[in-house]
Amino acid sequence: MNSKLQIFKTKTVLYAEDERGVQNNIGEILGLYFEKVLLASDGEEAIRLFDNNHTDLLMLDICMPKVDGLEVLRRIREENKKIPVIILTAHNEQEYLQRAVELNITRYLSKPFSKNSLQDALISCVDWMACMFGGLVVNIHQGLSYDVLSKALIIQGEKIYLSKKEYQLLEFFLINRSRMLEFDSIINEVWEEDVGKEALKSIIKSLRKKAPSLEIQNVFGNGYILQ
Q1: Looking at residue 40, what is its pLDDT?
Q2: How many other CB atoms sit within 10 Å of the CB of residue 129?
Q3: 0.70 exceeded by the pTM?
Q4: What is the CA angle 49-53-56, rounded to 5?
Q5: From the DSSP assignment, how many helices (H) and strands (E) are in the chain?
Q6: Which H helix or E strand runs over 26?
Q7: How confident is the model at residue 10 (pLDDT cuts 50, 70, 90)?
Q8: What is the spatial distance between Cα 182 and Cα 203, in angstroms, rounded to a whole number?
Q9: pLDDT at residue 103 above 90?
Q10: What's the sign of the alpha-carbon dihedral 69, 27, 121, 178?
C-alpha cells in the first residue's frame, strides 16, 4: 500500500453505486483503506448518508436512480467545497465530463476500472486534501502526531523530522497499528537489502529517542507492535 493512503485508516468514505454486485466488490476493497465505508444504492440515500454522517471522501456513480451522481455532488458542493470526489461512470461523453469538471471533482474513473486505477485515484485525493487543508496529519496519541507529507513527527506542536528509514518504519507501523509485526516482515518492508535485526533495533531506538512517548513494544522473540 502506498504510504500516503495510510491517512484513510481513520477516515470515512461514502460510496454510491446502484449495481449491487459492483457495490459489494468495490466496497470490500475500500474497506482495506478506510476505517468506515458508507454504502448508498441511489442518489437520495447518498444525500441522506452525507447529511447524517461525517464523511471525508465521496465516490459517486453518475447513473443512479432517483438522483444522479452529478446532482448529488452539486447539492453537496453547495455546503462543502473541499471534500475530495471521485466520479465513476461508463459514460465518456463530453457533456458528462464538462459537468463533472465544473463541479470541481478530484478524479474521474471510467467503469470498469482496476484496483490499481482506484488506488491511483485515492492517491490523487490525498494530494487534493493536502492542497485544501495544508497538510495531512495522522494522530498517534494526545500530543504526538505524524505529518505524512513532511515526514515529521509533531510533538506538542514541534516538528521532528525523520530519516528515510525512520519514516518508512513508522509508516509501516501506522498502517498495521495494534498488530504484531514479525521481525522478517518489518525488515523486508523497510530494507531492500538483507540486513539483520540489529539494523531494525537501531532504527527503533532512534525513533524512541526522538519520540519517547511512541509506544513501540517488543514482543519477545517474535517482533514489534505499535500501540
Answers
A1: 95
A2: 23
A3: no
A4: 100
A5: 8, 12
A6: helix 20-33
A7: confident
A8: 15
A9: no
A10: positive
- φ/ψ of 113, rounded to 5, equals -130, 155
pLDDT in tens, 104-146: 889 988 888 899 999 999 999 988 887 776 567 788 888 899 8
Question: Residue 122, Cβ neighbours under 10 Å: how many?
Answer: 25
Return d(Cα 62, Cα 136) in angstroms, integer: 29
Q: How far is CA 93 from CA 99, 108, 110, 123, 139, in A?
A: 10, 12, 11, 25, 42
At 59, the amino acid letter reads M
Asked if the 137-226 domain carries CATH number 1.10.10.10, the reply is yes
pLDDT value at residue 221: 85
Q: Collapse the DSSP code of 113 into the 3-class scheme (helix H, G, I; strand E, B; otherwise coil) and give the result.
A: coil
What is the C-alpha separation between 179 and 220, in angstroms, rounded?
14
Task: Look up the CATH number of domain 3-133.
Answer: 3.40.50.2300
Domain residues of the chain, as ranges?
3-133, 137-226
What gap in Å lies between CA 52 and CA 206, rounded to an integer? 44
Shortest CA distance to 83 belongs to which of 55, 61, 103, 108? Answer: 55
Half-sphere exposure of 14 (CA within 13 A, CB side): 27
